[in-house]
Amino acid sequence: MRYRPVGRRAGVAILAAAALCAVTGYGAAPAAGTAAVAASTPSIEFANPNSQALFGTAYQAALKNVLQTNTITADPAHYNKSGLLDPDIGIVRAGGGYPQPWTRDASVNSWNATSLLSPALAKNTLWSVVEKDAGGNLQVQQDDQQWDQVIWVTAAWNQYLVTGDRSFLENAYRTAADTVTIREHASTAGFNPAYGLFTGASFFNDGIAGYPAPPADATESVSTGSMPWPGVSTGMFLSTNEVYYAAYVNLANMAEKLGRPGQEAASYRAKANALKSAINKHFWNQQTGLYNYLVLADGTTGAYQEGTGLAFALIFGIANPAQARSILAHATEMTWGMPDTYPNWARYSDAQPGRHNAIVWPVVQGFWAKALAQQGEQNGFAAETARLAELADGNSGFWEIYNGNTGVVDGGWQRLGDTVKFHWGSQPDQTWSATAFLDMIHTGLFGLDFTDSGLSFTPDLPAGWGDVTLRDLHYRNADLTIALHGAGTRIGSFTIDGRRAFRSEIPASLSGKHTIDITLTGATAGDRDGDQVPDARDLCPDTAGTATLRGCPDPAHIEAEDALNTGGVKTNVNHTGYSGRAFLDGLWAQGASSAFTVHRTTAAAGTGSITLRYANANNEARTMTVSVDGTPVRQVSFPRVSSSWDDWGTVTFGDIPVSGLNPVITVSYAAGDSGSINLDWLEYRAAN
Asked: I want to staple 658 with a disulfide (CB 3.0 to 4.6 A). Which of 261, 265, 663, 680 is the partner?
């Protein structure tokens, strides 16, 4: 999938695709064209403007990512091997740089968001990765991602719960049953009866950088992919076995709902229980208080942390209550969220994190946030959600991977022999990064829980976020407005159209427009956004820009990486001489912009001067437009600094009018500008 072995030409092509996506700007439509599809396009509104700036901005970007940027037409010749695809609807691709849906991406994105936002689009996407065998039996496509096929079962069951589509469920059950049978009898990525566990790569780590040595070696000499390594293909990994457990549970659910013979559901539940016991027997580590990441065929275990594996243990109910409490107490998060695997393998480091090691993938963050919300860990859920919103707001949307220590866009490293390492690009417009955030809002914040009989609510509204309303959310035949009031996880009151309801749920048969009001209590006082500043002293909470997560930044120096960046602008560290965590590149096409919130001590109107530190190695001066609160003020020239992008200069200009406590100064590539500079920081000083 995302880590197939590639030759040098293919690797260069991937990087070129990333650069093209960056310069075309966030939200650019894919070349294949966007397929028209009726979809729910909800909107979110926080009463707290700071929360709206942070979470509302990210939510809108995530919707655009899924329903516009990554919804594409589907070639029936390629994607209709199941015979169930509707060519007029389209599918959801994996994201920028990845034109395919792929089984894992299609499943995760449908499960996290698409089934709710656009059931028809999700159904089409799920069928796009299904095929028929020689006998006409439906099965998830049999590609070289063998261990990844069964996550489709969980996504398919979720699609049914959201929609109630029995016709879909009948075909999904056939597909799921045949696929799991294939995997049970496979010689590669199959079942190991000695352990009672499934073999094959971990659910998320299709690259060898996600594995310690063993099963890897110090130079990663066999392959960049994971399955060519014998220790991986025969090894057993936490998340993969948890996904199989969920598949068995959901196959049993499907069989019961369809009225299949009782022995079918009973058999699947028996297999699920046996697998759950094997997981707890072979992976639980009493000493660390966590599940181990791996068990190799020779019995070697590894007391390493796998973020997805820990999340799935909680989400799927594999961990008992005591184990769940232990996981929450002992799991390690990096500065910018839950890492994929942890800690650094010996062959990697903080300076060069592995592509799948001690690095943050938002899709993993999303699973972890879901788990935290389910466990009632409100501060942890708030922090993880704020981190991903910050990463999106500061980098023109949702990228594939970020450095766990700095939050900078970073694709991670890969060994290619004794001395050489390859630094991968992190792809823009990643669908499962966006759907991870959407799931944080839908099933975390609003607590949406889909059942066979209806939709129930278990919201998690952190203190300080303020009241929040989700409008125009379509659920089956109902159009919902859901408003959360107060803060906490305990429901004090639940009303539907102003009438008190004694259960916090609505029936699947509900139709028409309805307003649900939920008042919450029990919020814990503390650190709502995980910035180590207590809420009582947090003067600038929940606004775009990482510095604001640590209190109000001094307007006399605002790092460019702490701005709200759009249009392809992102963080980077591939040149030297910058200050702070990173500098900004991507100011290369019209529409690119960086917006700096200047926190002043007075709301009185006045003027000030601005200094910008920048790099320009072009042959001539470049121009950008400066605006205040959305109103253009002037075009500014940035003279050439030198022939090197490692050299930096400054430009200062005065008479910039401002008013209010928090004016927003934006530097943008507008019509008539030439752009193509890098930014390091902005300084604002009021006129005397």
From this structure: 663
Residue 23 dihedral angles phi and psi, to the nearest 5°? -80, -25
pLDDT band at 534 (very low <50, low <70, confident <90, very high): low
Candidates 497, 502, 458, 500; CA nearest to 478 is 497
CB 523 within 8 A of CB 379: no
**Domain annotation for the chain: domains and CATH numbers:** 187-304 (no CATH), 448-520 (2.60.420.10), 553-686 (2.60.120.260)
| Tokens representing residue 167 in the block | 């016709």
pLDDT at res. 48:
86
Q: What is the mean pLDDT of the chain?
A: 90
Residue 179: exposed, middle, or buried by beta-carbon count in 10 A (0-12, 13-18, 19+)?
buried
The per-residue pLDDT for 433 is: 98
Give the residue among 251, 315, 241, 247 at the shortest CA–CA distance from 280: 241
Q: Please check whether residue 368 is in contact with residue 310, taking contact to mean a CB–CB distance below 8 angstroms.
A: yes
Alpha-carbon Rg of the chain, whole angstroms? 25
Q: Which of 31-40, 70-79, 301-310 has the lowest mean pLDDT?
A: 31-40
Helix or strand or coil: residue 648?
coil
Task: Give the DSSP letter of residue 434.
Answer: H
For residues 511 and 497, give the distance between their C-alpha atoms in angstroms, rounded to a whole number: 13
Residue 9, SS3 per DSSP: helix
Tokens encoding 10? 């293919």
Residue 480's closest CA among 519, 517, 454, 516?
516
Tell me the pTM.
Answer: 0.92
Contact (Cβ atoms closer than 8 angstroms) between residue 345 and residue 357: yes
Exposed (0-12), middle (13-18) or buried (19+): which is 631, by Cβ within 10 Å? Answer: exposed
251-258 CB contacts, 8 Å cutoff, 24+ apart: 251/153, 251/173, 251/176, 251/177, 251/180, 253/157, 254/156, 254/157, 254/160, 254/169, 254/172, 254/173, 254/176, 255/173, 257/160, 257/169, 257/452, 258/166, 258/169, 258/170, 258/173
Of 486, 612, 594, 592, nearest in space to 544 by CA:
594
Instruction: Let me know: does 568 contact 396? Beta carbons within 8 Å.
Output: yes
Confidence band, pLDDT 50/70/90 cuts, at residue 162: very high
C-beta of residue 192 within 8 angstroms of C-beta of residue 236: yes
Distance from the first to the final alpha carbon of the chain = 59
Residue 189 has phi, psi (to 5 degrees) of: 55, 55
Question: Rounded CA gap, 669 and 674, in Å?
Answer: 7
- Residue 492 tokens read as 């004090």
Tell me the longest C-alpha to C-alpha distance in the chain.
83
Quote the CA–CA distance of 330 and 289 in Å, as a whole number: 6
What is the three-class DSSP state of 451? coil
Q: Mind giving me the DSSP string for 146-209?
A: GGGTTHHHHHHHHHHHHH--HHHHHHHHHHHHHHHHHHHT-SSS-EETTTTEE-SS-SS--BGG
What does the alpha-carbon distance between residue 48 and residue 325 come to, in Å, rounded to a whole number? 32
Structure-token match 């919707």, residue found: 63
Which of these, 537, 581, 188, 615, lies nearest to 390 by C-alpha position? 581
Structure tokens at 499: 């009438």
Q: What is the mean pLDDT of residues 402-409?
A: 96
Per DSSP, 75 falls in state -
Strand partners, 456: 449, 505
Q: By C-alpha distance, which of 128, 189, 184 is closest to 156?
A: 128
Structural tokens at position 543: 């606004």
Inter-residue contact 215 to 235 (CB < 8 Å): yes
Does the pLDDT of residue 530 top 70, yes or no? no
